Amino acid sequence: MFxxxxxxxxxxxxxxxxxxxxxxxxxxxxxxxxxxPKDIDYSxxxxxxxxxxxxxxxxxxxxxxxxxxxSLAVPRGSIxxxxxxxxxxxxxxxxIAGLLEKPDQGSIWYEGIEMPVHELxxxxxxxxxxxxxxxxxSFNLFSSRSASGNIAFPLEAAGxxxxxxxxxxxxxxxxxxxxxxxxxxxGRLSGGEKQRVAIARALANSPSMLLSDEATSALDPExxxxxxxxxxxxxxxxxxxxxxxxxxxxxxxxxxxxxxVISGGSIVEQGSVAEVFSNPRxxxxxxxxxxxxxxxxxxx
Amino acid sequence: MSEILRLLIRPLGxxxxxxxxxxxxxxxxxxxxxxxxxxxxxxxxAGKYPGALLVKRIADRAINMFRSFPxxxxxxxxxxxxxxxxxxxxxxxxxxxxxxxxxxxxLARIVESSLxxxxxxxxxxxISCAASKTRILFAILIPEAxxxxxxxxxxxxxxxxxxxxxxxxxxxxxxxxLAIRYGYQRFRADVMAVAVVAIVALVELIQWTGSMxxxxxxxxx
Lengths: 300, 221
What we know:
CATH architecture of chain A: 3-Layer(aba) Sandwich
Oligomer: heterodimer
CATH superfamily of chain A: P-loop containing nucleotide triphosphate hydrolases
Helix content of chain B: over 70%
Helix content of chain A: 25-40%
CATH superfamily of chain B: MetI-like
Largest interface: A-B, 32 and 21 residues
């Protein structure tokens, strides 16, 4: 078990070794993650069945508490939605889940292994990040690069040789059906194409998880549907675990298996989509579903 | 007319040498300082080093101080330094030292602000690609900021051209010196006019080149 209490160096080395093992399938094809090393003692057996487990995470910025003791468990291979109004803390939660932000308190577990978030730095941090892909609302493509240049970046960072990068980028472009736009500058792609490039970039290192922060909010309804369907088919094909943060109820309805409702920095309700949508128990979920109804967001 | 052109050749060469050399030196040193300032001010780059804020404050003050010196005074103040670095405090080569010193803090600020303008979401994306900070800086941030960096470099070169006109004070020569010595002290309005036209032409050339490079970069994006 990776605990901060262990001698730091040994833990770091073990983590790097483990994570390298997980992300070392650089042969070209996207395949499910590697097997777990057997010498690790999983005393939290339940957690090993989960792709990601967030345990009582708290975060504040200055005096403003954004998340208080939020826990979240997402089983392997599922698509989990996190919905809530803006300011509810959902972006902070997914940024913490994706190691883009450090929690003040609480722990994060990937595939049953605790990420020592406060001790992670250097190579161990990079290896940990290779386990998750992240897509953003505003795509965040590198405008100085082409579509394939964007997808190649995480592979360059992982030290792949050039020929392998080329083959892998080709494969990823095929996955997102953009082979014909490989050399197009990122800025000249349409919104949907940009997000598909961003998805390919996020999946370049064969992560086991794909995290999406409002990935479809900047897209029109038709493109939203196409991107959601792509995410679902990639999940099926690559055995990914997906977490989608969204304020669009229809995104959840279209592709999510389970959903959490977040309000005021806490998760107020969790369950299957059918359950929560047909019979919301919390006030926040009821209000959220009702409000969305009134806005008439029924385009997906 | 041919006499005027003959008079023009040497000062023109001196001006070009002064600008080229001080641009090169200040790009290396000022660029490095600008990158340092940027990384020190970003939590994501230097956040965990407790000394970062202090170093950043000291560097900020030093840059503001150097930038507030009137150039003529700076030029005289660094005379001893020129003697140490290039062995003389007079002449064209010696005047490269104060020009570079004036341009370093200027360029540092330009680099810092150009890098800061890169959308923080793009940095998030680069971080989530599991790239090291050095790689993010050199493979993403600098290319993303390139048009803005080149525009800043163009601005710096034009400022340097203006400063170089004062090089005459320490015997540095150049077009500004020609204009003063002939046009003002010897009442040769024609020489002054030609010198001024040459300076204007240089400014135009620098600006045109800079704009063209920026246009090409943007056209390819």
